[in-house]
């Protein structure tokens, strides 16, 4: 595949499975493997081999022959990312998020935030329906900017908008590159993130394939009448609502109905944790 994409890979695997055909998919970078794990859990046969800096995923036409009465879907890591960053940039926060999927192809944001000096602990690790699950403890931290390794980008592609918020409240420059896929998500997420950062007063530089953010751990948003467009993108909406926690006068994010597509109780949960979000 010219661009590493877990969604495209999953579509091809499921199509081949339905057609009872063998398939080998070659990705330039390792992407999340939830579909492969699910197929194997039900007795299918998917293998992955890394060779010459490429990942080869092969599905045999063997039928799925295991009968399981239950399949437990792990808690969504992408949803937990908003809570994790909210806790890191808040004052005196100490939060335990339970039953989160920490699949190594999905939870690269943990690695990145730890590199940024985030106080994050992985507790009670266990296996559940062929997926790794754990509880995550997060405490307020004085973050620092880093150059995000390009190898982790496919793993964190959906979390880059909320990572950009963390970077805004981290000392120094955070550089995110090789993320051109963000331009063809639910919105052009690089442009949407850049537009939002400009509105809240964060110094940054948008790149063709990424963004450089010049943050400050003491940054506090003091502008008035900030109105940010979500571009009908749930991740942009939630990211800037989290940023609003560090605002003196609040932030208005337009078109937030889209949040319900992935995190329907986001507002209720954030308010239960001490936030002050309301629909108008």
Account of the 3D structure:
- Keywords: Amino-acid biosynthesis, Aromatic amino acid biosynthesis, Cytoplasm, Transferase.
- This is 3-phosphoshikimate 1-carboxyvinyltransferase.
- Pfam families: EPSP_synthase.
- GO terms for molecular function: 3-phosphoshikimate 1-carboxyvinyltransferase activity.
- The protein has two domains: 6-59, no CATH class; 77-272, UDP-n-acetylglucosamine1-carboxyvinyl-transferase, Chain (Alpha-beta prism), CATH 3.65.10.10.
- Helix content is 30%, strand content 26%.
- It has a four-stranded mixed β-sheet with strand order 7-8-10-9, with helices on one face. Strands 1-3-2 form a three-stranded antiparallel β-sheet.
- Strand 9 (203-207) and strand 10 form a beta hairpin.
- With 280 residues, the protein is α+β, with helices and mostly antiparallel strands.
- The protein has helices at residues 6-19, 34-41, 77-89, 108-115, 153-156, 160-168, 189-200, 234-243, 266-272; strands at 23-27, 46-51, 54-59, 94-101, 119-128, 131-139, 143-144, 170-176, 203-207, 210-215, 226-229, 251-254.
- Helix 3 (77-89) packs parallel to helix 6 (160-168).
- The chain is built from nine helices and twelve strands.
- The chain starts with 5 loop residues before the first helix and ends in an 8-residue tail after the last helix.
């Amino acid at each position: 595949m010219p661009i590493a994409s877990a969604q495209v890979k999953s579509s091809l695997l499921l199509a081949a499975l339905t057609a009872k055909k063998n398939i080998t998919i070659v990705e330039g970078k390792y992407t999340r493997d939830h579909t492969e794990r699910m197929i194997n859990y039900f007795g299918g046969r998917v293998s992955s081999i890394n060779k010459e800096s490429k990942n080869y995923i092969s599905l045999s036409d063997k039928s799925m022959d295991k009968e399981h009465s239950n399949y437990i879907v792990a808690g969504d890591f992408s949803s937990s990312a908003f809570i994790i960053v909210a806790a890191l940039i808040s004052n005196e926060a100490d939060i335990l998020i339970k039953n989160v999927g920490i699949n190594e192809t999905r939870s690269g944001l943990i690695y990145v935030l730890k590199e940024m000096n985030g106080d994050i602990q992985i507790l009670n690790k266990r296996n559940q329906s062929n997926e790794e699950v754990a509880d995550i403890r997060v405490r307020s931290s004085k973050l620092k900017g880093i150059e995000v390794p390009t190898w982790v980008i496919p793993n964190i592609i959906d979390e880059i908008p909320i990572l950009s918020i963390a970077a805004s409240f981290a000392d120094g420059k955070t550089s995110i590159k090789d993320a051109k896929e963000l331009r063809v998500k639910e919105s052009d997420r690089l442009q949407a993130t850049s537009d939002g950062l400009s509105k809240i007063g964060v110094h940054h530089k948008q790149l063709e394939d990424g963004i450089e953010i010049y943050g400050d751990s003491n940054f506090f948003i003091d502008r008035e009448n900030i109105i940010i467009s979500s571009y009908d993108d749930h991740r942009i909406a939630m990211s800037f609502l989290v940023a609003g926690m560090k605002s003196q006068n609040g932030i208005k994010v337009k078109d937030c109905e889209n949040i319900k597509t992935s995190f329907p109780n986001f507002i209720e949960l954030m308010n239960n944790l001490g936030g002050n979000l309301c629909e108008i």
